[in-house]
């Protein structure tokens, strides 16, 4: 896309926003209903696009992508009027007879940059939040999932005016062009490396950002856990989307006494659900050759307990478990983002916690145990974006739980009401009356007045 075209669309979106049309709640509800109908109409085409990018089944695509998209739209349609209402807050006696309110208002023109690994969900869910909050939106999908990007552009650009909601496709050069312009909000999902670039560009315009990044998310397994069920849940969470999930368990920290039992249980679960040498409707491809080669090198760098089968011609890597792993190994130096699961044994919980804390704060963390003291200790001592006890990944599906990272794993959060809040400014309004005016704040300033102010401001 030409630079002039990008500038023109941004300007048109800014003009529409300044007209106040998008601030009307009725208008927002109409647009969300239209979007829901458009998605429903194009559902089959979206399944085909995701299959082309990942060889991903319709079931898997609905479960991990469209189900969350529909849920977010339905939630906004149901509660938007309530979310938009001014909220009265308490005032102290010092402010009598005034009253205080908080008014949510949209920020303006938002740029949403999606990610390739869940190309529908990670584009549409933040866009829904932005539209619900009353913003205009430019959406830039991840270019690596090319067919999914194309279907998003086709269905949105043919059903919405470009001054309101528009998809701009392209690679890194297009993102750079977009970032040269001033937006009122930037929402980015992707790697920490690119997140730094986004943050730096946004700083030039003092644009607020939400960064949904990643990191090495640990799963702690203790000897009192139900090992069979733990293995089942970990295998599902790790190998969902062939491990290309930002909140997937990146590695396991298991108590030494149950390491062997857990490894065998994981191996058994993998055999139950996945085929060693071929793609099935339960499994997906690696997104491209570059990531396939990167993951292959990680597998070759250590000891493989099970899996490790690769077929370059279809970008297939079987669910792989690595053992005899240390924090100094190659597989522990970066987020894996693929179907490779390292297992590290520990004997001292404090040593394990320190190893996690010595590294960047993860996006997620998971704890498998029935010991409440251990759960309390880990939640208190380890900083991470969000997580689960005796499960993995499922916290993402509860829209009442804000989703986001901390530190290098992200800035800000979204989903449900939190998504609406992320794309809103909350305007503080102090409303006084002409009926009464206390003399307290006016001269002459006396010790008696000061004592009274101290009392009222306690």
Automatic annotation (TrEMBL):
Record: active site: 212, 246
Pfam families: Aldedh
UniProt keyword NAD present: yes
Single GO MF descriptor: aldehyde dehydrogenase (NAD+) activity
Gene3D superfamilies: Aldehyde Dehydrogenase, Chain A, domain 1, Aldehyde Dehydrogenase, Chain A, domain 2
GO cellular component: cytoplasm
Domain Aldehyde dehydrogenase, residue spans: 3-429
Superkingdom in the source lineage: Bacteria
Database matches in InterPro entries: Ald_DH/histidinol_DH, Ald_DH_C, Ald_DH_CS_CYS, Ald_DH_CS_GLU, Ald_DH_N, Aldehyde_DH_dom, Aldehyde_DH_NAD(P)
Residue stretches spanning the membrane: none
Keywords: NAD, Oxidoreductase
Protein family: Belongs to the aldehyde dehydrogenase family.
PANTHER family per the UniProt record, alphabetical: ALDEHYDE DEHYDROGENASE (PTHR43570), ALDEHYDE DEHYDROGENASE TYPE III, ISOFORM Q (PTHR43570:SF16)
Stated name of the protein: Aldehyde dehydrogenase
